[in-house]
Write a structure and sequence with these properties.
alpha+beta
Length: 446
Amino acid sequence: MKTMTNPKTKSKKSVVDTVIARLKQLAPKLPDKRTGKNCRYTMADIVLGAFSVFFLQCPSFLARQRTIQHQRGRSNAQTIFKMERIPCDNHIRNMLDAVPPEHFYPEFRALLEIVREQGYLDAYRVLDDKYLLMSLDGTQYFSSYVIECELCSRQKRRNGKVQCHHKVILPVIVAPGNPHVLAQPPEFITPQDGTAKQDCEIAACKRWITQHAAYYAADNLILTGDDLYAHQPLCQHVLDHHLHFVFVCKPDSHKTLYAVLEERADEVETLVVHHWNGEHGEIWTYRYCAALPLRAGDDALLVNWCELHITHAETGETMYHNAWVTDLTITAKNITAIVMCARAHWKVENENHNVLKTKGYHLEHNFGHGQQYLALTLLTLNLLAFLLHTVMHLSNKIYRRIRQARGRREAFFNDVRALLVYLTFESWAAVLAFMAGALEIRPPPD
């Protein structure tokens, strides 16, 4: 069987090749718990083996490629993912259990820099292109009454049993009207050394800010989050690290702020905008007020508040209602843009959590739990694959055209999985070139 190639894919290094090369270079620096001479598989084989499964959304990829390697002397694991040998799944799990996930965080930045250098990050800039918007939200991706590790959180249920689970904050760069999110390094909610308290979403968010804020500060990053995040210690932490925030602010959890707002009702500014949604008219009523205390006490952080109330133009029925607090100055000129940014927070759930859980990434599937870092590290590699797919969509016209031609995401990956069983390709670019040829998609002009 000949290896499929394409002369046009040889000279230009694809973003996939870049990530594979970086992981291969990183692998020898990772913790390797083997002490003897039995090192048949390199750490590069182990890391790239795990990553290939998530990149192709194919848990059986390695097993199939071992068969192809045996039959033909060459496989796609070798040609596309640059693996020397193909380790079994159990060996990969055993070796990655000792590797903390933060070793892979620089790979997220490397991909974001590619997006920046190629100009695609400009589509994510908001508020007169002066800011980037990042949505923060936690989600649970594992729970069990039987399986556990030292990094599991634990909760006693009403039935008396202790449930072990893993939760994580998944930050994503978003923009109003942009259907694609850019996944960024996660922050895991895990038991912390030196504290008896259970870890929580707010504490994890603070750690993420402490670790990553300096990198994003030059982009004037705005953090969005739900009502849980509108918490003075967290808001102050955001400001101390030269970032900005727009967080949901509900009356029940911010009684002091809304009491002062009621007292200063004459200072509240209002903007009314009429919209037609294609079926009926809507009235969008914006209200905003400056310098309200986020909590009680003389040391309360003063924040700016805004609200959007959407009603049916004919019946007066409420169709949407929410409010937020921010450190950004709110005016009649920017109130609509700030609210658009605030409302883009939902993308972390719909375009990130939902895609990761239901569109082939199987976020909640137990790919391997381990006793140390395995569950965290595998999730991180899965997120990296998700980000890489997004970057491919942004930067590769052929990839976009193939995805458009095949429709649903599942159809595209089903095709890829089938091709890699029957054919061997020189590179990922060769896979796309083969698919484009079969679909009669012409390559875009240089």
